[in-house]
Amino acid sequence: MAQRQPKSRAPAKSSKTATNYWSGEVTSHSDALDLDAGVFTWDDPVKIARSLKRSAEASERRKADPFRSAMSMLTFYINRAGKDLPDARRQVLEQAKDELRKAFGRTPH
User: Fold this and answer.
1) Cβ contacts of residue 79 below 8 Å, gap of 6+?
2) What is the SS3 assignment for 17?
3) Which residues lie closer than 8 Å to 78 by C-beta, 6 or more apart?
4) Predicted pLDDT of residue 103
5) Is 70 in contact with 52 (CB distance < 8 Å)?
6) What gap in Å lies between CA 67 and CA 72, rounded to an integer?
7) Please, are residues 76 and 27 in contact by the beta-carbon 8 Å criterion?
8) Ranges in the chain, pLDDT < 50
9) What's the distance, CA 54 to chain centroid?
10) Using CA atoms, how far apart are residues 34 and 49, in angstroms rounded to an integer?
């Protein structure tokens, strides 16, 4: 019986750029929403919420209702950043969630 040769693996990359991560592609080129450039880097939570609402309501490719699509994209970005997201940025984005709820007539948390 012949012995199997171990499968060779591609050499590990020492570092990945944001474009190498599938999650970065989702944020940049969402199939559901056309986001304004840099929307998650803005400092005004109201402006972020308005932009997400506008994008979600204008999209015909989304599967869920506009509120859920907008909130999902915002939550996805926060979760994707994980522990690398500075506290100040996380606070702005969490405030944007409440502003998004207000914009859609939902009760803020």
Assistant:
1) none
2) coil
3) 85, 90, 93, 94
4) 95
5) yes
6) 8
7) yes
8) 14
9) 16
10) 14
